[in-house]
Specification:
204 residues, alpha/beta, globular
Length: 204
């Protein structure tokens, strides 16, 4: 017993765990994926300031300090090793380059993203101030630029996961994610999170 308690850490134990970033466009399924990771046993960074509502019944899993990345306020990242945090795609370029990140990027049909966004704005009696065609063009250009940037970052590994594929085969995608982040996860609990009844905005 004493040997087990005081055994020297292995090289694997001493290897710093990368930070796990869940990213994608707003309304693409990033909150769902954060809950999946939490259920799977991954510690998550969230302040729970934004409560669950009709648009996100399972919660938003946001972390307010993330919004300060453009101001180069990233001290909180030191406490995030081995944890997961949600960062929208527009803020990825502000991540410091001296940390290793595993980015799980959720992709979703842009028509579905726009439909979900419009419904959310309508419930809040708000407007985006731009029509869907222009917004879709902006999203497409943004995604192309983000993917180009991600592919050239030596400190970032990326797994692209399609929202519809998660709902169609949650167990398969969960095992893929577990392999990507390199740790065992509670696959059964994780797979129970995606819900077809929450897939309310489908591409035609």
């Amino acid at each position: 017993m004493l040997r087990r308690l005081f055994a020297r850490p292995t090289e694997q134990d001493k290897t710093p765990k990368p930070m796990i970033i869940v990213s994608g466009l707003p309304r693409s399924g990033t909150s769902m994926l954060m809950k999946m990771l939490a259920e799977g046993g991954v510690p998550v960074l969230t302040d729970e300031l934004r409560s669950a509502d009709t648009d996100n019944p399972n919660g938003y899993y946001e972390f307010e300090p993330v919004k300060q990345l453009p101001q180069h306020k990233s001290g909180w990242l030191a406490d995030g090793k081995g944890k997961a945090v949600k960062i929208i795609s527009a803020l990825l370029e502000y991540l410091p380059g001296d940390t290793h990140y595993k980015v799980i990027f959720v992709e979703r049909e842009i028509e579905e993203v726009l439909a979900s966004q419009q419904k959310m704005l309508a419930r809040r009696d708000e407007s985006s101030g731009i029509d869907d065609a222009a917004m879709q063009k902006q999203f497409e250009e943004h995604l192309a630029a983000v993917k180009y940037w991600l592919a050239r970052q030596p400190n970032i590994d990326v797994l692209y996961v399609e929202y519809g594929a998660i709902l169609a085969d949650p167990e398969g995608r969960c095992r893929e994610i577990a392999g990507f982040i390199g740790r065992p996860l509670e696959i059964e609990k994780m797979s129970a999170v995606p819900s077809a009844h929450l897939y309310r905005n489908r591409a035609k």
